[in-house]
Fold these 2 entries.
Entry 1:
Amino acid sequence: MNSQQMLALQSQSRADFDLIAKWIKPGAKVLDLGCGDGTLLTQLTKSHQIRGYGVEKDDASWLKALENGVDVIQNNLEEGLSGFEAQSFDVVILSQTLQAVLRTEAIVHEMLRVGREAIVTFPNFGYWRHRIQLIAGQMPVSKSLPYHWYDTPNVHLCTIKDFDEFCANHRIRVMQRLVINAKREIHLLPNLRGSLAMYRLCAQE
């Protein structure tokens, strides 16, 4: 990833993180999957006094998280969360990582086994700018998808409509859904006009 891609993703992540914080209760026990350098957990610890734990696969990001004082283990999410007991966290977060995992169904169900709630955010492939690039015959590149087809880590791109159907078909209750574009909330035609989707989920009883 070049420097422009990194800056674009970091800018989008800040909007993502600020809104995630609104869904976290003070003092909550939080698990952040694919936590990177621990920025989100550090922010939540300062603002909400959470008990935060992270999981990260990348060597450099894991070391950076440790340097930042984050309680993080190095593990591949594809191998599951068997090291964590059921309902041992108030919230499990997967922020802009859903599209980069192979075993999507298994990981979401593991999140809801380990946590009472799950927060999932992802770039919306149905965003109108992405659609125009596809019509023009090219894979989309944007602020929310700052990769070219040949260097992207993304393997399972989806739209908001796709994820709504996924939740319905897998007995997952959507407690809240928020769609944004450039930090603005999108209510009209969200699958067309929103670049980033955020979901607060729990298992159906």
Entry 2:
Amino acid sequence: MIEKSATVQNSAGIHCRPSAVIVTAVIDYPGSVRMTCDAGEVDLRSLLSLVSLGLDAGSRVCINVSGPDEEVFCDRLVEMFERRYDFAERLEDSPMAGY
């Protein structure tokens, strides 16, 4: 098992969209992938569990991976938690939606 720390860098934290990116990366991994923080511990295969932690920018997390290529996979997850996500504005979220 490998354990590494990360600090959330995204200005909006780890909300639904970055959580979906992370869970999608983890879902097919054949080993165990867990994350702990001050708010609790979750299996990173659960979108709802990850979002429910309310991780804001600056939140510290500890990622635990056990399985094949665990160090490489854990490094990838650290990068995902420390990424500054820049999602394009969705049309329905635009103040001009419907016009």
